Amino acid sequence: MRKIRMGMVGGGDGAFIGAVHRIAAAMDSRVELVCGCFSGDPERALSSGQALGLETDRVYSDYHTMMGMEAALAADRRMDFVTIVTPNHLHLPVAKAAFEQGFHVLSDKPATLNLAEMKELMAVAESSGKLYGLTHTYLGYPMVQEARQRVERGELGTIRKLIVEYSQGWLAAADDPNNKQAAWRIDPRQAGESCCMADIGSHAFNLAEAISGLKVTELCADIGPLVPGRQLDDDGTAMLRFDNGARGVLIASQVSVGEENNLQIRIYGDRGGLQWQQEQPNSLKLMYNDQPAQIVRTGWSGTSEASCSLTRTPAGHPEGYLEAFANLYLQFAERIAAAEEGRPPAGLASSMPGLSDAYRGMAFIEAVVAASAGGDKWHSLKDHPGNTEA
Ligand SMILES: NC(=O)c1ccc[n+]([C@@H]2O[C@H](COP(=O)([O-])OP(=O)(O)OC[C@H]3O[C@@H](n4cnc5c(N)ncnc54)[C@H](O)[C@@H]3O)[C@@H](O)[C@H]2O)c1
Fold first, then answer.
1. Is the beta carbon of 83 within 6 A of some atom in ligand 1?
2. Of the residues 85, 106, 138, 186, which should be mutated to test ligand 1's pocket, given the most ligand atoms within 8 Å of the CB?
3. pLDDT in tens, 206-240
């Protein structure tokens, strides 16, 4: 089994998520970083690549040059896929440049700046015939897949109520222009039409749909900035209606003082309920009306094959964020290998987030912004054009 070769755009010195991606990609020795364009500043792009020990001629000062130069290399040397870890406004242009040169794309979320761009991304991805993956990190957690399987097996009965929350506190203070991560997230030109809902609300939305297997059809919302001077939302709440008639609430906030990464979900069916909390990721709580609640833990027999396949260490040795990311890398590498070998991808690789999740996320952001700004109570999510993952 050969290693899958990865290039990276973004993730230079001082960046946040690029380093997490590199650790995750390296964790299982299935993927190797071979090249990159790590910054929009050419000097920083080069110094960042050199600090990672890459060959000098595989460190590029702009991403267009990177795509062209990589495409010109021998097939057994050039990158197989590019990981995009830039601010949101560059997700589409970088993905487009990669697809046009025949590379697969693994992008961080949100997929694009807005829904119109998302449609363009779908068209380019489809005509390229290459793979697209989206790093909705939380789907890489074993207990999220355990929850998904239990809902699918009908253990909760018919789902009637969902409550999903992603609360952080890191944007609670007045803006500091030296905070690199905050600066672009509150700028509509780089973040899109939303800050908080695009940045973390989209994760909560994806988690609710993925675990429940349901689709949001309509929502109403109240979002906006609570810190004076901001143009984009830093907090908000949406009420959700699902396609089976279930109701839900989605809360996202970046100004909830003291909160770290408090992503949690509760789902109630007519037979049982469940709760998963990102800050205690190795436990899944199951709830009933006729017996005490149970805590299911990672690494035990009796848990699903899916959750076991995402667990590396024996029960009680904590796994978390980096391992969840690594699971997505393993799945994307498997999808590439399967495509090369002309077979279906094994295990969870076939259901990892792709273009349809990307579209749903962008439709959610558009709807939540429109619903909050408009006078009508309920707003429909734009129809999904179909699952068109290459
Ligand atoms: N999946 C997750 O859990 C998760 C978590 C955090 C961030 N994200 C997403 O990851 C992306 C990056 O977020 P971040 O917090 O790491 O931001 P960041 O500001 O820390 O890093 C962005 C990087 O992109 C680089 N960049 C900017 N313009 C570039 C260009 N033209 N060419 C090459 N590189 C360029 C910057 O120099 C920087 O290194 C965002 O889309 C964000 O939504 C996802």
1. no
2. 85
3. 999 999 999 999 999 999 999 999 999 999 999 99
Q: What whole-number distance in Å separates Cα of residue 34 and Cα of residue 79? A: 7
Q: What is the pLDDT of residue 384?
A: 59
Candidates 17, 13, 100, 113; CA nearest to 63 is: 100
Nearest Cα neighbor of 29 from 383, 330, 331, 362 is: 330
CA distance 359 to 381: 11
Domains of the chain and CATH, by start: 4-137 (3.40.50.720), 139-313+354-373 (3.30.360.10)
Ligand 1 atom 2: residue of nearest CA:
137
- In ligand 1, the atom with minimum distance to the C-alpha of 184 is 19
The reply to whether ligand 1 has any atom less than 6 angstroms from the CB of 87 is: yes
Q: Please name the residue whose Cα sits nearest to atom 6 of ligand 1.
A: 17
Residue 389 has pLDDT above 60, yes or no: no
Q: Is the pTM of this model over 0.85?
A: yes
Phi, psi dihedrals of residue 174, rounded to the nearest 5°: -60, 155
pLDDT digits (tens, 9 = 90+) for 134-192: 999 999 999 999 999 999 999 999 999 999 999 999 999 999 888 999 999 999 999 99
Decide whether any atom of ligand 1 lies within 6 Å of the 138 Cβ.
no
Mutational pocket test of ligand 1: of 21, 39, 325, the residue with most ligand atoms within 8 Å of the beta carbon: 39
Q: Which residue's C-alpha comes closest to atom 20 of ligand 1?
A: 15
C-alpha distances in Å from residue 371, one per residue of 1, 187, 232:
49, 21, 15
Query: Which residue owns the Cα nearest ligand 1 atom 28?
Result: 40
